[in-house]
């Protein structure tokens, strides 16, 4: 019964986000799902079904993939309505999804520990080798330069500035990616983040030395 629901949810998510090229494709969802379940298992915390459902659906209402916030919410809520689950479980899944997005640091406070686990898994996918690949894929899609030494690093952005202000993909490392390791909730995710963080730092060092013509 739960297995069937997971399968159905996978199909729905694949159909909605399959061809996205901003780094939010099906494989991102699948990695977040697997990492969330791994963290939950390691921490011996959280209901695996709720975590898996929330991870699978977490980007459905994302503002980048919808014309408006309402449209995204509607898409998610209409799918959830059809599922044969107790209201309380549905509400918990929705609560996780609506509380995890980063959005330049202006996201609402995370409420449940399950939400912390899914948020950790989502944030882990934005760092390390995968995170680097996603940042440049997203930047290219948005039409922003790989790097622009003339721009300064932005602090305390509004959501609008975070999404549409002038920046470069290298700047995104300072505005978000290098901050992620200190924003994680679970010990398991913090451990997983260490190597990924070091890898990004090494990448930046190499990037600048090539940029400056020393490598
Ligand atoms: P979330 O995964 O919390 O929804 P975003 O939607 O902001 O976060 O970002 C999705 C992916 O795109 C992440 O890997 C993120 O690092 C990358 N990304 C977001 N904004 C930028 C940007 N301005 N430049 C480069 N990459 C970005
Ligand atoms: Ni995501």
TrEMBL record:
Source organism of this protein record: Bacillus methanolicus (strain MGA3 / ATCC 53907)
Keyword field: Hydrolase
Domain (HD/PDEase): residue spans on this chain: 21-136
Q: Which domain of life is it from?
A: Bacteria
| Keyword Acetylation part of the UniProt annotation | no
Which named protein is this? Metal dependent phosphohydrolase
InterPro entries assigned: HD/PDEase_dom, HD_domain
Under Pfam families, the record lists:
HD
